[in-house]
Amino acid sequence: MRTDEPAADEVAAADARFAEWMRLNLARAARHFGVDVDGEPTYGWRLRTIGAPVNGPAGRRWLRVVSEFPEYAAGDTWTGNSDANDLTGVPRARVLDVDEWTEADWRRQRAELMTLLPGQTVSAADDLQHDPGLPETWWTGLAAALGALHRTKTSRSGINVERTRERTQRVYGTPIGVDTWATIHGDLHWANVFAPLLGILDWEFWGRGPAGYDEATLFLFSLHIPAAAERVRAAFGEILDSPAGRTAQLIAAARLKDRIDDGDFPELADALSAHVDQLRSPFIGQRTVQG
User: 289: number of CA atoms within 13 Å, CB side?
Assistant: First the structure.
């Protein structure tokens, strides 16, 4: 007997169709910009984005297509990558050209032709599978880049205040507000950073948000690899242990818990739960990394 939930094979078949459709959108965008796809495409969260290296008259570039329901294809997140062109002191790809179109009145597509960063992402997934062993120069560069970003003045909104209060109310039983603000990346996980030369990807969510949120996000995505978590703490412990940093960790952890409850990052579940318990304990200043 059928239930309201689709069977696993139906979900897999639907995902395969959507992935192939996104490939067709990537090809359409390549034709528009006069470039040729030159590598196997990679997909973002739930196939919402597709990207691949491309070749054209000006050399190698990166081509990215994002797909969204029309009612959400607007605002700060929609233009985040191109808006980030104005940032200084942060190593990132630059958006060179943009094209948008509507597909069958049910999806809005945005293609961005970008410069191609050297190297590769530290992790294929948002979380780590092992300690990446990044050199000291990489960490120094990341600290400098985040410092420059946090000092940037912007009117962009990186975190939805009401959604944050609702989520923390649901997860912790009490809403958590933000007292200290900074300009943040908003999604600083291990699949959004490049090595061996530092680069930071995917600027959809950058804008004003809780101070320490980027450092907190990277730390939480490292918890199940103790050596990596300790390295993040070595770089950003002063921020993480501040009152603003502890608040940012709780806010980021609530968002991550929602992802885990949806089936993402099962390896992180126990470590995240233990760490949140420590954050909420009266001995918060004496906590240690759990992994």
Answer: 20
Give the number of other Cβ atoms within 10 Å of residue 50's Cβ: 23
Angle at 276 between CA 187 and CA 252, to 5 degrees: 15
**8-114 CATH fold:** Phosphorylase Kinase; domain 1 (3.30.200)
Sign of CA dihedral 220, 253, 18, 107: negative
- Report d(CA 94, CA 96) in Å as an integer: 6
**Residue pLDDT, tens place only, 55-64:** 999 999 999 9
Query: Mutual orientation of helices 136-150 and 213-220 as an angle, nearest 10°?
Result: 140
What span, in angstroms and rounded, lies between the C-alpha atoms of 259 and 265?
7
pTM for this entry = 0.90
| For the chain, domain boundaries | 8-114, 120-286
Element (H, E) at 199: strand 199-200
Is the distance from CB of 77 to CB of 204 less than 8 angstroms? yes
pLDDT (tens digit per residue) in 238-263 = 999 999 999 999 999 999 999 999 99
Q: How far is CA 196 from the centre of its chain?
A: 19
- pLDDT tens column, 82-98: 999 999 999 999 999 99
Task: Give the amino acid at 244.
Answer: A
60: left (phi over 0), alpha (psi -120 to 50) or beta: beta
Question: Does 120-286 carry CATH code 1.20.1250?
Answer: no
Among 85, 104, 103, which residue's Cα sits nearest to residue 93? 85
Contact 284/198 with Cβ under 8 angstroms?
A: no
